[in-house]
C-alpha cells in the first residue's frame, strides 16, 4: 500500500520535488492570508458609508486592488514552484522507467509495451495535479482556517462557534469519501490498463477483422468495454461530486448562518455573540467576507483529494512495475570501439537460469555452425549468451579470447550481425531500419539478401514505413530484410535464430545462400535451427540438450 | 476550429436533451452563487442601516434570510445535478465517438490499414478521445452558462442598483475575459500541438525500445534509442513548462480581473453613495455580486490551456471517424462467377499503373492460379476483388454486380481473402477461429483444422484450447499460417481468394492443405496468387500477369 501515511515507499518517486513542494505550500499560505486584509478594507469602506463617516474611496480601492495584485503574484509564484516540483518528479520517474526497461534482458511480467508506455506516459501525467494542488491545499488547510477562526473569535464568539462546529465535519467526511474514491480510481485504472493491451492487438489485426466480416462483432465487443470504462469513470466522478457537494453544502450553510446571524445582530434582534455590546456594521461585513474563505481551503483540499486518490493508484502501479525482476542486459547496448582479438567463441559449463545446461561449445573464427536440438532446449538462449544479451546462471562465456563481461559486451557486439526470429520494425523508414543511422548504402546488403527487387517495388522504396512486425511485406520478405540488416554492418560473426523457419524451399534457399555468401568472406556463422537442409550446409552441427 | 465544432455537433446531437439541461443547471449554479453573495451583502448592510435607524422591528428579516438559505442549498443541489448530468452526457457521447472512430479505422483504405501501428491508433482511441471531453465540459457549457449569468446579473443590477455599476461589471468581465482568453490561446495552441507531437513520439519510441530491445542492443543502438525516447520527453517537458507559464499568467490575469472589477464596483458604489444616488446596501450588493461573478469566468482558464490540445485531438479524430452507417446500396445474393472486364489497377498510394486490360472469369468450382514476378500486382488484384483497392478503369463483378455496389456485410459473406500476412491475437485456437464464425460448433472447427492439417497438432496439445499468441509463443509461423487459412475456410465463401496460401509449408503439407481446402469448399471459385509450382499444379488454370 502506497500513500502519504506510508512515506517510506513513496519517497522513492516523490522525493525529487519535495523541497519545491514545501516552498510552494508556504507561498500559497501567504497568498491566502492576504484576503482578510482586503476584506477589512471593504468592510471599513461600507461600514464607513453606513455610519456616515468620511470614506476616502480612491485610496481604499487602490489598497484593495494592490493587495489583490500581491495575492495574484504570490499565487502564480507558488504555482510556478509547484510545477517545477511536478516536472522534476515526473521527469525522474519517466527516465527511471525508460532506463530500466532498456536494461532489461527480457520482457517484464508487468505487461506489454502498451501497458508500460501507458504507465510512463499518461498515467505518470496524473501525478502532476496531485503534486501541484494537493500539498499547497493541505498546507492552506492547516493554517488559513485557524487564522480566520482566530479573527472571527476576536470579532464575535458566535461566528467563531459556527466555524468551529461546521469546519471539522468537513475533513471527517472527506476522509470517508477519500477511501471510497481510492477504490473507485483503482478499479478504473485497472480497466484502462487491460483495455489498452486488448486494443493494441485488435488494432494491429484490423485487416483480418474486416476481411472476416467480424467488424460488427468486434465493434460491439469494444462498445461493451467502452461502456464498462464509462461506468467506472462515472463511479469515480459520482463519489467525487457527492463529496464536493456535501462540502459545498457545509460551506453554504456556514456562510448563510453567518449572514443571518450578522443580519439579525445588526437589526438588534440578537443580543449575544459579540464582545461588549452589539456587533458593528463594519465587523459584520468583515465576517461575511471572511466566511467563504474559511471553507475555501477545505474545499480545495477536497478536490485535490481526488487527485491524490488517482495519484496513489498510479504510485501503486509504479511500485508493481518496479517490483518485476528480469535478467539484466550485459553492457549498455551502446556504440563502442570494436573489440580486438580473433572472432572466436567458447562456452564452458554454461547453465541457464531455467536450469538448462547448454554444455561446452567452442567455435573458431570463420567457422559455420548449426546449433540444433528439440524445442525448449536453449538454442535461442545459447545465441543470446554469445551475444551477451543473457548472463548464464553459472559457467563462463569467452569471446575473442577474453571473458565476456559487461565491460566488453558492447565492444564485442560491434562484431556481431544479428538475425532474430521475430523482428520488431522501428517506426521509421525501411532505410533506417537497416542502417540505423549509419551512412553506408544499404543496397549491396539488400542484393545479397535477394530482397533488393522487392524493396524497389515498394511504393516508397527505402522510405517505406513498415508495420511493427513487418506489415506491408510477406513473412519471407521481412525475414530477408533482417538478413540484409545482419549483413549490412560487415560483421565478423552472424547469429541467426531459425533463419529459415516458416519459409518455403525457394525463399529458404535464398536466405541460406545469403548467409553462406557472407560466410565465404570469412564471417563466422552460428545458426540455431530445426532445418536439416540448412544444417547440412554448415561445417558442423552442435547438438544441445541431447545426449545427456 | 471547424474540427472542434464538428466534434461538438456530434456530442450535441448524441446528447441534446441532457446537455441542454446541463447548460441550464450550470447557469442556475452561477446565477444563484452571484445572487447569494449579493443578497447576503445587501441584507447585512440593509439590516445595519435599519438597526442604526432604530427601525429593526419593522425590517422584514424573514424573506431575505429565507432567500439566503434557499440560494445556499439550491446552489449546492443544482451544482451536483449539473455535474452528474453533463459528465454523464459527455462520457456517453465520447463512447459513441470512440466506437465510430474504431469503425472508421476498420474501413480505412487498405494501405493505411495495414500500416496502422497499434500504439498510435491506441493514442487516438484513448488519449485523443479523452481530451475531447473538454469540448462540452470545459469549453462550450461554461462559456454559454457564464455568458447567460453575466447577462442576467447585468439586468438585475441595472434594475436594483444603477446602470454605471451594472455596465462596469458586465463590460469589465466580458471584455477582460475575452482578451485574456484570446491572448492565452493564441500562444498555447501551437505549443500544445508540439507538446502532443512530442508526447506521441515518446510513446512510439518507447514502444519500439521495448519491442526491439535485444535487436537494438546487439546493434549497439540501445543507448541511442534510449536517448531518443528521453529526448522526446525533454522536448515535451520544455514545452510543458512554457504552457504552464501561459496557463499561470492566464490564472493570475483572471484573478486580477476579478479584483479590478470588484474594486471598481466598490469605488463606483462609494462615490454614488456619497453623491446620494444610491443607498449603501445597494453599493454593497454591487460589490458582492461583482466578487461572486468571478466564478463565471474562472473556468475559462482551464478552457484556454486545454484548447490547443482539444483542437489537435479534434483534428485527428474528425479525420478518422466513420460516417454514421448508411443504407446498403444494393443487396445481391449471387453465387455466380467472378468477372474481370478491362480492369486496370494502379500501385497502392500512387498513380503508377501495374495492371492493364485485364480480362478473365473464374467459374463456380474452378481453381485458378495467378502467377507473375514479385511486384507484378497479384496481391493488389486480389485486394481489388475483395473491395479493398479501387480500380483505375474497367470493372470487377461478382454475380453480375460490380464490387463497389455490394453491401459490405454481404460482400464479406460471399468473398473471403487470405492476405499475405495475418495477425493472430493472443488467445486460443477456438477463439481465433470463432472470430470468423462466432456460432460455429466444435465439430465444425475440428473439420477445418483437419483440412489444414492442424488437427493432429491441436489434439497433441490442448485441443481447441491450444494457446495462440503473437510473436513466436504458442504456434510456429507455418502453424499460424494454416490456422488463419482455417479461419478463412470457416466463412464458407463462394469466392475464395488466397494470397500465396502455402508460403512457408513443406511440399507434402502444402499439397494436403490445398486438397483439404477443396474438400471443404467443393463448389467455391478459388483464385490464388501463387509463386510455387505446387500451387500452379493444383490449379485448373493459370493466368500469367
Please give a structural write-up.
The complex is a heterodimer of chains A (548) and B (545). Chain A has 548 residues and is an alpha/beta fold. Chain A contains 18 helices and nine strands. Chain A is elongated. In chain B, the strands form three sheets. Chain B has a five-stranded parallel sheet, with helices on both faces. The two termini of chain B are 49 Å apart. At the A-B interface, helix 3, helix 4, helix 5, helix 7 and helix 8 of A face helix 2, helix 3, helix 4, helix 5 and helix 7 of B.
Secondary structure elements and pairings:
The complex is a heterodimer of chains A (548) and B (545).
Chain A (H helix, E strand, L loop, with lengths): L6 H8 L3 H15 L2 H16 L6 H47 L9 H13 L1 H29 L1 H48 L1 H6 L3 H53 L13 H43 L21 E7 L5 E7 L4 E5 L6 H9 L6 E6 L2 E2 L2 H8 L2 E4 L10 H6 L7 H6 L3 H6 L17 H14 L4 E5 L7 H16 L3 E5 L3 H5 L3 E4 L5
Parallel strand pairs in A: 3-8, 3-9, 6-7, 7-8
Antiparallel strand pairs in A: 1-2, 1-4, 4-5
Chain B lengths: L1 H13 L1 H37 L9 H45 L3 H5 L3 H14 L1 H28 L2 H49 L1 H6 L3 H53 L5 H13 L1 H4 L1 H22 L17 E9 L6 E10 L4 E5 L6 H8 L7 E6 L2 E2 L5 H7 E4 L8 E2 H6 L7 H10 L3 H6 L6 E2 L8 H13 L5 E5 L7 H14 L4 E5 L3 H6 L2 E4 L1
Parallel strand pairs in B: 3-10, 3-11, 6-9, 9-10
Antiparallel strand pairs in B: 1-2, 1-4, 4-5, 7-8
Amino acid at each position: 500500500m502506497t500513500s502519504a501515511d506510508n512515506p517510506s515507499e513513496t519517497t522513492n518517486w516523490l522525493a525529487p520535488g519535495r523541497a519545491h513542494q514545501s516552498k510552494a505550500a508556504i507561498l500559497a499560505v501567504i497568498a491566502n492570508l492576504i484576503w482578510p486584509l482586503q476584506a477589512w478594507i471593504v468592510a471599513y469602506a461600507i461600514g464607513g458609508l453606513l455610519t456616515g463617516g468620511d470614506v476616502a474611496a480612491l485610496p481604499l480601492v487602490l489598497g484593495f486592488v494592490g493587495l489583490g495584485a500581491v495575492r495574484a503574484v504570490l499565487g502564480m509564484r507558488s504555482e510556478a514552484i509547484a510545477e517545477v516540483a511536478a516536472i522534476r518528479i515526473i521527469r525522474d520517474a519517466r527516465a527511471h522507467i525508460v532506463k530500466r526497461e532498456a536494461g532489461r534482458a527480457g520482457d517484464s511480467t508487468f505487461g506489454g509495451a502498451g501497458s508500460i508506455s501507458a504507465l510512463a506516459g499518461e498515467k505518470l501525467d496524473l501525478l502532476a495535479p496531485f503534486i501541484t494542488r494537493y500539498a499547497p491545499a493541505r498546507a492552506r488547510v492547516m493554517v488559513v482556517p485557524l487564522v480566520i477562526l482566530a479573527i472571527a473569535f476576536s470579532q464575535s464568539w458566535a461566528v467563531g462557534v459556527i466555524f468551529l462546529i461546521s469546519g471539522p465535519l468537513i475533513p471527517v467526511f472527506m476522509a470517508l469519501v477519500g477511501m471510497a474514491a481510492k477504490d473507485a480510481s483503482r478499479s478504473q485504472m485497472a480497466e484502462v490498463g487491460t483495455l489498452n493491451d486488448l486494443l493494441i492487438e485488435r488494432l494491429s489485426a484490423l485487416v483480418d477483422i474486416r476481411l472476416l466480416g467480424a467488424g460488427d462483432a468486434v465493434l460491439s465487443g469494444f462498445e461493451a468495454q467502452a461502456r464498462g470504462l464509462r461506468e467506472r469513470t462515472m463511479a469515480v466522478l459520482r463519489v467525487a461530486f457527492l463529496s464536493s457537494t456535501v462540502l459545498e453544502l457545509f460551506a453554504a450553510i456556514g456562510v448563510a448562518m453567518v449572514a443571518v446571524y450578522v443580519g439579525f445582530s445588526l437589526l438588534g434582534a440578537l443580543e449575544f455573540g459579540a464582545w461588549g455590546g452589539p456587533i458593528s456594521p463594519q465587523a459584520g461585513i468583515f465576517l461575511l467576507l471572511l466566511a467563504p474563505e474559511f471553507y475555501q481551503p477545505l474545499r480545495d483540499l477536497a478536490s485535490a483529494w481526488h487527485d491524490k486518490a488517482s495519484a496513489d493508484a498510479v504510485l501503486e502501479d509504479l511500485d508493481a512495475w518496479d517490483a518485476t525482476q528480469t535478467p539484466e542486459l550485459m553492457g549498455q547496448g551502446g556504440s563502442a570501439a570494436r573489440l580486438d582479438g580473433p572472432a572466436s567463441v567458447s562456452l564452458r559449463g554454461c547453465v541457464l537460469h531455467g536450469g538448462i545446461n547448454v554444455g561446452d561449445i567452442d567455435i573458431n573464427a570463420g567457422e559455420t555452425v548449426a546449433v540444433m536440438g528439440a524445442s525448449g532446449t536453449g538454442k535461442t538462449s545459447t545465441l543470446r549468451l554469445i551475444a551477451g544479451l543473457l548472463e548464464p546462471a553459472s559457467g563462463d562465456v569467452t569471446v575473442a579470447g577474453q571473458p565476456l563481461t559487461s565491460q566488453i559486451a558492447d565492444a564485442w557486439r560491434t562484431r556481431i550481425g544479428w538475425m532474430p526470429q521475430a523482428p520488431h520494425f522501428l517506426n521509421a523508414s525501411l532505410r533506417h531500419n537497416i542502417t540505423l543511422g549509419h551512412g553506408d548504402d544499404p543496397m549491396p546488403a539488400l542484393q545479397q539478401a535477394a530482397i533488393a527487387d522487392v524493396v524497389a517495388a515498394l511504393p516508397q522504396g527505402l522510405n517505406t514505413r513498415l508495420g511493427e512486425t513487418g506489415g506491408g511485406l510477406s513473412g519471407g520478405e521481412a525475414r530477408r530484410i533482417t538478413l540484409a540488416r545482419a549483413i549490412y554492418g560487415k560483421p565478423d560473426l552472424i547469429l541467426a535464430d531459425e533463419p529459415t523457419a516458416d519459409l518455403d524451399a525457394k525463399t529458404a534457399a535464398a536466405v541460406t545462400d545469403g548467409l553462406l555468401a557472407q560466410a565465404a568472406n570469412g564471417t563466422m556463422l552460428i545458426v540455431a535451427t530445426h532445418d536439416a537442409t540448412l544444417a547440412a550446409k554448415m561445417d558442423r552441427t552442435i547438438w544441445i540438450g541431447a545426449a545427456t | 476550429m471547424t474540427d472542434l465544432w464538428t466534434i461538438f455537433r456530434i456530442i450535441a446531437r448524441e446528447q441534446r436533451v441532457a446537455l441542454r439541461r446541463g447548460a441550464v443547471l450550470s447557469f442556475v449554479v452561477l446565477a444563484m452563487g452571484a445572487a447569494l453573495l449579493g443578497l447576503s451583502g445587501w441584507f447585512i448592510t440593509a439590516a445595519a442601516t435599519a438597526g442604526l435607524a432604530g427601525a429593526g422591528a419593522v425590517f422584514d428579516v424573514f424573506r431575505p434570510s429565507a432567500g439566503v438559505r434557499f440560494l445556499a442549498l439550491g446552489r449546492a443541489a443544482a451544482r451536483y445535478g449539473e455535474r452528474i448530468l453533463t459528465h454523464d452526457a459527455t462520457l456517453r457521447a465520447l463512447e459513441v465517438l470512440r466506437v465510430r472512430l474504431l469503425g472508421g479505422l476498420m474501413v480505412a483504405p487498405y494501405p493505411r490499414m495495414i500500416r496502422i501501428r497499434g500504439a498510435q491508433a491506441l493514442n487516438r482511441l484513448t488519449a485523443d478521445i479523452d481530451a475531447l471531453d473538454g469540448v462540452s465540459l470545459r469549453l462550450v457549457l461554461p462559456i454559454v452558462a457564464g455568458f447567460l449569468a453575466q447577462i442576467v446579473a447585468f439586468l438585475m443590477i441595472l434594475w436594483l442598483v444603477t446602470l454605471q455599476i451594472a455596465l462596469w461589471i458586465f463590460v469589465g468581465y466580458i471584455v477582460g475575459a475575452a482578451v485574456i482568453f484570446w491572448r492565452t490561446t493564441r500562444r498555447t495552441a501551437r505549443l500544445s500541438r508540439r507538446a502532443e507531437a512530442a508526447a506521441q513520439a515518446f510513446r512510439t519510441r518507447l514502444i519500439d525500445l521495448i519491442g526491439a530491445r535485444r535487436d537494438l542492443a546487439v546493434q549497439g543502438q540501445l543507448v541511442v534509442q534510449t536517448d531518443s525516447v528521453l529526448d522526446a520527453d525533454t522536448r515535451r517537458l520544455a514545452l510543458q513548462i512554457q504552457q504552464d507559464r501561459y496557463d499561470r499568467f492566464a490564472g493570475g490575469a483572471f484573478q486580477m480581473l476579478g479584483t479590478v472589477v470588484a474594486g471598481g464596483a466598490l469605488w463606483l458604489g462609494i462615490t454614488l453613495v456619497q453623491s446620494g444616488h444610491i443607498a449603501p446596501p445597494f453599493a454593497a450588493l454591487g460589490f458582492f455580486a461583482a466578487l461572486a461573478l468571478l466564478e463565471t469566468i474562472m473556468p475559462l482558464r482551464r478552457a484556454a490551456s486545454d484548447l490547443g490540445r482539444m483542437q489537435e485531438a479534434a483534428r485527428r479524430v474528425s479525420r478518422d471517424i466513420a460516417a454514421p452507417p448508411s443504407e446498403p446500396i444494393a443487396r445481391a445474393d449471387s453465387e455466380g462467377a467472378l468477372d474481370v472486364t478491362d480492369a486496370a489497377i494502379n500501385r497502392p498510394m500512387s498513380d503508377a499503373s501495374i495492371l492493364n486490360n485485364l480480362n478473365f472469369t473464374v467459374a463456380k468450382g474452378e481453381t485458378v492460379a495467378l502467377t507473375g514476378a514479385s511486384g507484378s500486382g497479384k496481391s493488389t488484384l486480389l485486394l481489388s476483388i475483395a473491395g479493398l483497392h479501387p480500380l483505375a478503369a474497367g470493372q470487377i463483378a461478382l454475380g453480375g454486380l460490380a464490387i463497389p455496389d455490394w453491401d459490405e456485410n454481404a460482400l464479406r459473406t460471399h468473398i473471403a481473402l487470405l492476405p499475405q500476412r495475418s495477425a493472430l491475437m493472443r488467445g486460443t485456437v477456438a477463439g481465433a477461429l470463432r472470430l470468423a464464425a462466432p456460432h460455429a460448433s466444435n465439430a465444425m472447427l475440428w473439420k477445418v483444422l483437419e483440412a489444414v492439417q492442424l488437427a493432429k497438432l491441436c489434439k497433441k496439445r490442448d485441443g481447441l484450447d491450444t494457446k495462440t499468441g503473437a510473436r513466436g509463443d504458442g504456434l510456429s509461423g507455418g502453424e499460424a499460417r494454416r490456422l488463419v487459412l482455417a479461419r478463412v475456410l470457416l466463412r464458407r465463401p463462394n469466392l475464395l481468394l488466397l494470397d500465396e496460401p502455402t508460403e512457408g509449408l513443406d511440399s507434402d503439407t502444402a499439397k494436403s492443405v490445398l486438397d483439404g481446402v477443396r474438400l471443404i469448399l467443393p463448389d467455391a471459385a478459388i483464385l490464388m496468387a501463387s509463386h510455387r509450382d505446387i500451387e500452379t499444379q493444383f490449379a485448373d488454370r493459370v493466368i500469367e500477369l
